Amino acid sequence: MRNKDFITGKVPITKEEVRAISINKLDLLNAKTFIDVGAGTGSVSIEAGYSYPNLKVIAIERNDDAYELVNKNKEKFNLKNVEVIKAYAPIKLDGDIKADAIFLGGTGKKLEEIIDWSKELLVPGGRLVANFIIIDTFYEMLRLIKEKGFKEIDVTVLNVAKLEKLGTGEYFKPHNPIYIISCEKGVE
Amino acid sequence: MRNKDFITGKVPITKEEVRAISINKLDLLNAKTFIDVGAGTGSVSIEAGYSYPNLKVIAIERNDDAYELVNKNKEKFNLKNVEVIKAYAPIKLDGDIKADAIFLGGTGKKLEEIIDWSKELLVPGGRLVANFIIIDTFYEMLRLIKEKGFKEIDVTVLNVAKLEKLGTGEYFKPHNPIYIISCEKGVE
Amino acid sequence: MRNKDFITGKVPITKEEVRAISINKLDLLNAKTFIDVGAGTGSVSIEAGYSYPNLKVIAIERNDDAYELVNKNKEKFNLKNVEVIKAYAPIKLDGDIKADAIFLGGTGKKLEEIIDWSKELLVPGGRLVANFIIIDTFYEMLRLIKEKGFKEIDVTVLNVAKLEKLGTGEYFKPHNPIYIISCEKGVE
Amino acid sequence: MRNKDFITGKVPITKEEVRAISINKLDLLNAKTFIDVGAGTGSVSIEAGYSYPNLKVIAIERNDDAYELVNKNKEKFNLKNVEVIKAYAPIKLDGDIKADAIFLGGTGKKLEEIIDWSKELLVPGGRLVANFIIIDTFYEMLRLIKEKGFKEIDVTVLNVAKLEKLGTGEYFKPHNPIYIISCEKGVE
Questions:
Q1: Where is the Methyltransferase domain positioned along the sequence (chains A, B, C, D) (predicted)?
Q2: Which of A20, A61, C97, D159 can pair with A39 through a Cys bridge, CB separation 3.0 to 4.6 Å?
């Protein structure tokens, strides 16, 4: 999906190239349940729900504006498989929910708690994918997933630049470098 | 899909991050027919065919080794919806084929012919996506699609680096910068 | 020199990392005369004049604000060896001036004329260095210097990002990618 | 100086763009003494000594092959102002040496000791510049210089790619991303 497909407000939206890679690394094709933590505009949740109609998507977002945006985008694309929860992760989820994949897009101060909670929720072999622009949080996450025994750790730094007009010519306008971590809960 | 999922030989394989973005830009979700020109190892064809079981994929590849690899990967993933044609594009396709999306991954000297042929084959609004590492070919393609009236031109340069071990530490090993062009055949 | 050392206004200043590389590629250590075309804030002229007191620096700048800035910076660093000319290059220079090195930082529409004029002015083996963010102009320059027989062509694309505060953490804020071309007038 | 100017062996050489920026950040113009720790091929020492004939350069290198290379390059450029010491930093230097600038190009396991030793040796306002490709060491250095009260901390990540021939075209071949840290010993 293109970024212009989404209703956005002042909430920063994951850029489409970053979203494409992140969703790809989540391996959602045969997944049943996907949790999007700190959903922001919800673009990851929405594209996941739209691309995989049989997938159950749970988007968790605590910010008022962002929460509303996810709901607006959910409506725009008429997605029945996306549930939006207004809360500050980690939270206790109803029922006996297990996740095949979890995405961390807006992790703040509770990084370790969220990683532990993700490990609890993930099925064996389940995928955990996270995006960072802050190097401190990136580095902390990398340390934590190694320490906590996640497997198949893959770390990418992505520098995207887009061709834009400038005067009578065109130049490559750079986006912020993004660190993408993906890993799996091991099969014990 | 991860790069390690594919059978590869000496044929260079599109890196998984580049493939994820390229497939995303092809908008295959509701597409019927997709043509992959210069399929290489076929990773784009295979991932497209695997991710979208209702999509008809036509992979065109003239190189012997590459042709065999696409077939091996097709077998590995047991894909009935991928047809592999050993030929040097542009070629005349049987029947009255129209494409919703075309990917150029291995365009060589016949760039303008292939673009004209793509425009013929594409349905109105159909997507043309191309990857380049050679700057000459990238610029030439950009010039040609503008001249030939393609719409929604979007140009990305992608610098991916992957964390790898070096001695007792880790460093970001860079991949070659890739230029990704996507555009649409206009609706007349 | 650090960027904060310079008086700047609304005129864009060459970033210090780009300036360091460009001046390095100009090989000014044993040069007598250096011409800076489209001097902008004059940071390249000023750093060159400051670093090499025996070098004669000629800065050509047509923009009013920029012209004034070069002069202000010249004064700030008390540089007697920097001459600032308010003009639109190429111009006829007084006397029998030959240049050991020429820098193009703000080339606009007269690219080919400026390259020809540079070739005239340069001593055999003299260095021509140029910075671009516009890809069209970069590519045109590359084509022209090949066509006109410049030697030792070296092309760098430079992606610089600087660590900056963001909330309670730090992220790498990217600068625009810069194309740096350097080459030499051959010795006939 | 160009990389081809140096005698190199199997010892990895700092790329010329990285060297230009690093030397620039060392502010050697009015410096008296510069120490290059882990000199490698010595390209930083040699270019510093060559560019600033009045500068005293002390290159410390423990590796046999690298030590010999620094000496060979010193001879090639006939530099009387470069002293090469075969040792594993930190070491006690003769006399009452104070440094205006210190460069860390090959810091291994003794990072904290070397930073402490650098702080001892530097004059107030003296410059400490370091290059890293290993992210662990980069982060550790950043943490340590903050902790130890260094000032004017400036952190750059540099992605350089060079245009090279590929088949009948040209592509940008990427170098490893380099983290460049520069800072100053505060004036107490």
A1: 31-103
A2: A61
Closest Cα in chain C, distance from residue B146 (Å): 14
Q: How far is B158 from chain D (nearest CA, A)?
A: 12
Task: Give B37-68 pLDDT, tens digit per residue.
Answer: 987 778 999 999 999 999 999 999 888 888 99
CA gap B38, D67 in Å, rounded: 50
> CB distance A158–B50 less than 8 Å?
no
Q: Which residues, 6 or more positions from B165, have their beta carbon under 8 angstroms from its beta carbon?
A: none
Give the residue among C172, A125, A96, C175 at the shortest CA–CA distance from D139: C172
Q: Which CATH number belongs to the domain containing residue B101 in this structure?
A: 3.40.50.150
Give the contacts of B4 (CB within 8 A, at least 6 positions apart): none
Contact C163 D172 (CB under 8 A): no
Q: Are D23 and D185 in contact (CB under 8 A)?
A: no
Range of the structural domain that residue B20 is part of: 3-184
pTM above the 0.90 mark? Answer: yes
Interatomic CA distance for residues A38 and A89, integer angstroms: 8
* pLDDT per position as a tens digit, C61-96: 888 888 999 999 999 999 999 999 999 889 999 888
Distance CA D103, CA D34 (A): 8
The residues on C that touch B, with CB distances below 8 Å, are 135, 139, 157, 159, 177
Cα–Cα distance, B126 to B152 (Å, whole number)? 11
> Is C133:C114 a contact under the CB 8 Å cutoff?
no
Cα torsion C133, C135, C139, C141: sign: negative
Count of other CB atoms within 10 angstroms of residue C54: 10
Q: Which two tokens stand for residue B75?
A: 């077998």
Counting the structural domains of chain D, the total is: 1
End-to-end CA, chain C: 36
